[in-house]
Every structure is written in structure tokens, then in C-alpha cells.
Amino acid sequence: MSVVSSLVPARFLTLIAHLVIVIIIFWSRENSVRACLPLDYTNQEYSLEDTRLVVALSVTLGLFAVELVGFLCGISMFNNNQALLSTGCHASGSVALLFFLFEQWTCSIYWWIFGFCRSVSKYVTVNA
């Protein structure tokens, strides 16, 4: 199998892996929210951080829906440059989110991961 023909399955697998990690973070967000707060926090602080994380994860899931529809409809499936960059962005996003999940990084780091991985991927999608 040539490199060009292996980009489509690689892109699909990294996209789905990234999506699964985001869903896992969404389901177990209680631990992530607690990692964002100081040792002694109020219920109001907890609900504020929980809302911020839910918004971030919801935006991520919405953009995943847009990207999956475009990919599965064939709009961006066979664009090699976009597939290569998307695979790299989703692979790096998956690794960074695994660190976010397992190392319990603060919630503000999620926005940095989101911004880096999405902005590069969307820039190439628009300009391709």
C-alpha cells in the first residue's frame, strides 16, 4: 500500500481516537475539574470550572461533527495535504489530551491544546 493510499485510514483512525479521548474526558470531567481548583474550593468555583470545561468539550465535539461529516461525505477525504496535516494534528491532540487526562493538568491547558490542534487543521482545510 502506498503512502498516499494509507493516509485515508490513518486520518480516520487518528480522528476517531481523538474523538474517543474527548468523550472519555467529558464522561470523567469531575476529576479534571477538581484538578483545576485549589485544595479548598467552594461549590460556586466548582460549578464555574465545570461549566468552562463543558463549554470547551462541547465546542470540540461540535467541530468533530463538522469534520466527520466533511470527511465521510468525501469532501476532504482524498486531499493528501489536508489528510497529512489532519492526521498529525489529531495524533498530537490525542497525545496531549492523554497527558491532560492522566497527569490532571489545569483546565486552561485544554484551550491551548484545542487552539493549536484545531487552528492548524482548520487553516489548511480552508486554504486547501
UniProtKB/TrEMBL annotation:
Record flagged with keyword Transcription regulation: no
Residue intervals passing through the bilayer: 6-27, 53-78, 90-113
Taxonomic superkingdom: Eukaryota
GO BP annotations, alphabetical order: non-motile cilium assembly; protein localization to ciliary transition zone
UniProt subcellular location: Membrane
Keyword ATP-binding carried by entry: no
Lipid bilayer topology: Multi-pass membrane protein
GO cellular component: membrane; MKS complex
Principal subcellular localization: membrane
Protein name: Transmembrane protein 107
Protein's organism: Cyprinus carpio carpio
Organismal lineage: Eukaryota, Metazoa, Chordata, Craniata, Vertebrata
